[in-house]
Design goal:
Length: 222
């Protein structure tokens, strides 16, 4: 088996990571998926990730990251540990600083075990949501650290790093999966698949990007 052609995609079942999945399937001979179960606000995320993995016939590793809840700010600052949505804000209240650091590190350990050189993640600096460990400089730095830590030559790929949401839809279209991603993925903070609730920040960002992309193709395709 040619090691250089094996990849692990960090996969959440959302628009970005599903686009990365199809990007990876074009680039690499063998693709496996890893999803982190940190008791997301909506367990539907995990189910949708499983569904897509099954449909694409890909091996899907779901890793238990419930320990993140122990570190979540709300759990630390309150007597009762509550991980449900309380404010409808942008971030799940299970958000932990450094989360992407952990996810990419675990993805690399998995990659080592399944003999994959490539790690693909949908992090993005353009729609930067305030997570320093989603920035390009961090990913490059971690790549060096991971290589040193395991004496390996991993390559972390970030195909969406410099794309805005419209450009991410464009990439999906180029990969011939625009409709699939539109209908099958879950981005909505209220747990509604496809075009979602239409009101939460994630839905609005997704829809604005789609509108912008579709407008830009108007008159080109028709
Ligand atoms: Zn929504």
């Amino acid at each position: 088996m040619e090691k250089n052609n094996r990849a692990v995609v960090v996969f959440s079942g959302g628009q970005d990571s599903t686009t990365c999945l199809f990007w990876a399937m074009k680039q690499f001979d063998h693709v496996e998926l890893v999803t982190f179960d940190y008791q997301q606000r909506h367990h539907a995320e995990i189910e949708i990730a499983k569904e897509i993995a099954n449909e694409q016939g890909l091996t899907h590793h779901v890793l238990d990251m419930a320990l993140l809840n122990q570190l979540a700010p709300n759990a630390l600052t309150r007597n009762e540990i509550e991980v449900s949505n309380e404010t409808g804000e942008d971030l799940p209240n299970t958000f932990v600083p450094g989360r992407n650091l952990l996810f990419l590190s675990f993805a690399a350990i998995l990659a080592k075990q399944i003999d994959a050189k490539h790690i693909v993640t949908g992090v993005c600096e353009t729609d930067f949501s305030g997570y320093p460990d989603c920035r390009d400089v961090f990913v490059k730095s971690l790549n060096v650290t991971l290589n040193l830590s395991m004496d390996d030559q991993f390559v972390i790929h970030t195909p969406l790093m410099w794309l805005d949401k419209a450009a991410t839809w464009e990439l999906a279209d180029q990969l011939h999966v625009l409709e699939y991603i539109r209908e099958r993925t879950l981005t909505c903070y209220n747990g509604i698949k496809g075009s979602g609730c239409g009101e939460c920040p994630a839905c609005q960002l997704r829809q604005r990007g789609l509108d912008k992309y579709l407008q830009s193709t108007d008159g080109v395709n028709k």
